[in-house]
Amino acid sequence: MALTLDDVRAAARVIEGQVVVTPCLQSRTLSAIVGAEVWLKFENHQFTASFKERGALAKLASLDADQRAAGVIAVSAGNHAQGVAFHARRLGIPAVIVMPRHTPHVKVEHTRVHGAEVILVGDDFDEAKAQALRIAGERRLTLVHPYDDPLVMAGQGTIALEMLAAAPALDTLVVPVGGGGMIAGIATAARALRPDIEIIGAEAERFPSMRYALDGSTPVFGPSTLAEGIAVKVPGVLTLEVVRRLVSDILLVGEGDIERAILLLLEIEKTVAEGAGAVGLATLMRHRERFTGRRVGIVICGGNIDPLTLADVIQRGMVRTGRLARLTVRLRDLPGSLARVTAAIGEANANIEEVHHQRAFTNLPLQDAEVQFVLETRGFEHARQVAATIEAAGFPVDLDSAGQPDAP
Q: In this structure, are 160 and 264 located in the same domain?
C-alpha cells in the first residue's frame, strides 16, 4: 500500500512531544549569495543531532509487547543508530546496532552512550547490512530499517509538515538522499499538501545510487565521501517507487562542494553540519542557476561530524578563501635575512602561523636557503600584497597555487 499524507500525519501524532520541532528559518545571507529565498530546517538540533530520530521512533512505537521484549536491530553509519539506540532505551527495548568498521568514532561512541550493543563489521553500509540481517535471524530481533520501511518513511515525512507550517510559500524543497527514506516521506507529505511544490534530491557524486537507479544505469562509486551518512549503494525498493513518482530531479555535488557548504553553515549560520547535512546547501551553491528566484527549503539533516574532520574542513576552507596563504621565500643564508623577511610580513599586516627553514632539501646554491611561511591573511588580494611587500624588500617569493582562487 502506498504511503499517504494520513500516514505521515499519524506518525506526527505518535512522535509528538518526543522529538524536537526543529527551527525552520530564513537565511538572509545565504539568500543573497545564491539569489534565492533560502530557508533552513535545522534537524541537527535534534537530541541525537539528526532527523533519524523521527522514523526510528515511529517504528519502535509500533512494536508489540513480544517484539519489544526480544529487542531490535539496526544497521547504520551512525545517525539512524543513535536514533534507534536513544529511543529504544527510553522505551525499554534492547537494541543491537551494526555499523561499518570505518564509521566516525564520534558516532560509534554516541551510540554506545545510549546503551546499545554496537557491532562494527564490514567496509561499508551494504556489508554491515548483510551481517545485521544474519544476526536478526539468529537472535529473533526486529529489524528497524534505516529507510525502506513505511513507518520509518512516514516518520521522516513529518519534517515536511513542519517546514510548510513554518514557511507556507516554499516552492522547492532540497533533500539529501541516501537510501531515500527522508525524501520519500517528505515528498509524500509535501506533494499532497502542495501539488505544485518541487522536490529535488541531493546526492554526493561518489555515491549517486538513487540518480542511477532512476536512470536504470549502473553507478560507479568512489572509495569514500565526506557525506558518509548518505553513502548508500542501493536505494530502497519502497523509497525508489516514491521518488520515481514525486521527485523532480536528483542533483549531484562533489566533495569540495560539501566542504564549502559545511564551512558556510558554520560561518554564516553558526551551525555545525556533517557532510550529509550540508549536501542540500552544497547543491544550491553548485547548481544555483536551477534555483534562482525561488523559495527554497533545505534540510540540514544532521550535525554529527568528527571534530578532527571539522578542523580539517575549516583549515582547507581557509586555504580556499585565501585566509591561509603559503609563501616560499628565497634568501641568502646570512644572519639578519630571516628577520628582514618577517619584518616585511609584519609591515604587510599578516600573521605568521608556521615557518619552515630549508637548507638541505633544495636545489638552491649552498649559500642560499628556502623558507616557507604559512600566513593568516584577509584573503587572496591581501596574500598577493604580502608577497609584493616581501619582493620589494629584495626577496624572491612564490605564492602557493593552492592559495589562488582559480586553483583546482
A: yes
Shared domain check, 239 and 188: yes
Torsion of CA 36, 39, 43, 45, to 10 degrees: 120
Q: How many structural domains is the chain composed of?
A: 3
Q: What is the DSSP letter of 367?
A: T
* pLDDT tens-digit readout, 210-239: 999 999 888 899 998 999 889 989 999 999
User: What string of DSSP letters covers 96-139?
Assistant: EEEE-TTS-HHHHHHHHHTT-EEEE-SSSHHHHHHHHHHHHHHH
- Domain membership of residue 336 (yes or no) is yes
Grid cell for residue 98: 551494526
Which residue among 143, 170, 193 closes a domain? Answer: 143
The closest of 326, 324, 323, 207 to 258, measured between CA atoms, is: 207
pTM exceeds cut of 0.85: yes
| 345-395 per-position pLDDT tens digit | 999 999 999 998 876 667 677 678 889 999 999 999 999 999 999 999 999
